[in-house]
Amino acid sequence: MSAVGDGESGLQLVFDMDFDLVILDLMLPTMNGREICREIKKVVRTPVLVLTSRIRDTGALEGDGADDYLLKPIRVPELAARVGYILEDVRRPSIIGVQPAILQEGPLRLDLEQKLATLNGDPLELCPVEFRLLAYFMQNPGRLLSHEALLTRAWGPMYATEHQYLRLYVSRLRKKLSDDAACPTYITNVRGQGYRFRESSKEISARSER
């Protein structure tokens, strides 16, 4: 484990050594966190966890390549839990259990083994959290998934009450899916309870044949 106090030194350290995870504060001298994140992602695939005091920064962070973020003030147990969850996700070969390796609903396709997502044949650039959320939605079509279940699935049990994280990432998912919240194609908000992914066309057809 290594730590530095300025942006340029941090960036050089990442390029000189092989790290499992980079924890990056946005407010650094010589080079700001967003610049560092962009430069890291140009060269290595090391996951980057960004520490920020402003939730409005998170949309821009996605474009910079950040894999996840944590809002200040930072609590050490929360930071440790988030780091553990990110590393566990990176190291596990896939999220396949009893589910099929390929999930598909209309033009939306998820390859769980390769961790690839496409829409109308075009790649979807999803961060690990977004991919986990979308996979969980597609594995449970038509079911009401509570806020707590989604938060636990995406971030771990310590985050079961952190609804602001869920709102942000669902909003980002909808944007990438071109899913209008006012008239959703895929993800429907059930006010005060959770979200529901549209029922699979195969399930609808099978039920109508019974």
Structural write-up:
With 210 residues, the chain is of the alpha+beta class. Helices cover 41% and strands 18% of the residues. The chain has eight helices and ten strands. The protein has a four-stranded antiparallel β-sheet, with helices on one face. A three-stranded parallel β-sheet has the order 1-2-3, sandwiched between helices. It starts with 6 loop residues before the first helix and ends with a helix.
Keywords for this structure?
210 residues; single chain; alpha+beta; 41% helix; four-stranded antiparallel beta sheet
Task: Describe the main β-sheet briefly.
Answer: 4 strands, antiparallel
Q: Tell me the structural class.
A: alpha+beta
* Strand segment count: 10
* Radius of gyration using CA atoms only: 18 Å
Distance between the termini: 59 Å
Helix content: 40-55%
Query: What is the helix tally?
Result: 8
> Uncertain segments of ≥5 residues (pLDDT<50)?
93-98, 204-210
Order of helices and strands: HEHEHEHEEEEHEHHEEH
Strand content: 15-25%
Taking all residues together, what is the mean pLDDT? 81
How would you sum up the global shape? globular
Strand order of the largest sheet: 4-5-6-7
